[in-house]
Amino acid sequence: MTPDTLKAACLELNGAEETFPFGPETSVFKVGGKVFALTALDGQPLKVSLKCDPDLALQLREAHPAIVGGWHLNKRHWNTVTLDGSVPEPLVREMIEDSYDLIVAKLPRRQQLILDWQGVGAAGRQR
């Protein structure tokens, strides 16, 4: 995964925005004002930190040496993925979407509906 494809994967999600609260070298991707991904797009090697369900986070770390507890983040809820090609790109994209979903799930229902989030049913109830 290249820096451009990583950025595109984050920004293609409804309502996602790129911000730079820690300076121009760190891209922070947010939805509803909440962080779902952090990366230094110019970093060598390229890495991204993503929110993750705690049980799944441990499984991913056991299965992939390139996935470790979130760097400078709550390691129970965040993973940092080194994008060195050892983690398949479809899995990285799934992890980005899962991180986004974990954040959107905590937003008010009105915001979820505006984002046309898949986790909200047609009647406005969460699935």
TrEMBL record:
GO molecular function per UniProt: DNA binding
Pfam family name, one: YjbR
Chain ranges passing through the membrane: none
Keyword line: DNA-binding
Name of this protein: MmcQ/YjbR family DNA-binding protein
